[in-house]
Amino acid sequence: MAFNYWQHLEEGGIYHLYNRSVNKEKLFIDDQDYAFFLQKIRKYLFPYLDFYAYCLIPNHFHFLIEVKAFDHSFLTKISEEHTKAAEKLVRGEIGVNAFLEDQFRRMFSSYALYFNRRHKRYGALFQKRCKRVGIKSDVKQLSLICYIHHNPIHHNMGGNYQDWKYSSYHAFISEKTTEIKKDKVLEWFGSGDAKSGKELFLAHHGDFKQPPVESWMLD
Predict the structure, then answer these.
(1) Which domains does the chain have, with CATH numbers?
(2) Which residue in 109, 168, 145 sits closest to 16, CA to CA?
(3) Residue among 125, 126, 141 at smallest CA distance from 13
(4) How far apart are the C-alpha atoms of 38 and 34, rounded to whole Å?
(5) How confident is the model at residue 219 (pLDDT cuts 50, 70, 90)?
(6) Which segments of the chain are extended strands (E)?
(7) Percentage of the chain with pLDDT > 70?
(8) Where on the phi/psi map is residue 111: left (φ > 0), alpha (ψ -120 to 50), or beta?
(9) Which pTM was predicted?
(10) CA 172 to CA 204: how far, in whole Å?
(11) What is the DSSP code (8-state) at residue 126?
């Protein structure tokens, strides 16, 4: 049976989402591109998804996210977006998955328009569909967070986690406020204790070795 890389996004579900550019072209060329993409993530995705980890590298990206609960008060807020998909969701004509797919489409379109204009490029930038795989194992969640942060090392973009600026690893070693759900992730590592979780987070990352490619990974 073929593996399903496009599982439906459901409320409360935790997913590994990833996508790459067409023909392995670059998605990001300089700091401005990375910053603009992160800005688009905040606008189109942060209101609806909790982010646990991310990494952007020149021709692809990885997210570990959880879909928020779309309760009545949340739907009321969504109705203020005044997009066709938001209106259909509130009326019950489409589900959460279709609404979020539209948010991704709008995010990718907005970034591609900016990127093509800025770099004098034409045509599609991202592969057509963003892959998403549900993560139901606690062990796999921890391994995937390390895998996401390890990606730049795997692709020879630095010798350690701190060398690469465009991942959520820095949020975990900093005391600064972050939009990443840092405390929850550290509680995962520490079996409910965020303080010991930080030590275990660092230890797991230090011991992490790139495993053989699995269905939920993108090399």
Answers:
(1) 1-136 (3.30.70.1290), 137-211 (no CATH)
(2) 145
(3) 141
(4) 6
(5) very low
(6) 14-20, 49-57, 60-67, 131-134
(7) 95
(8) alpha
(9) 0.91
(10) 13
(11) B
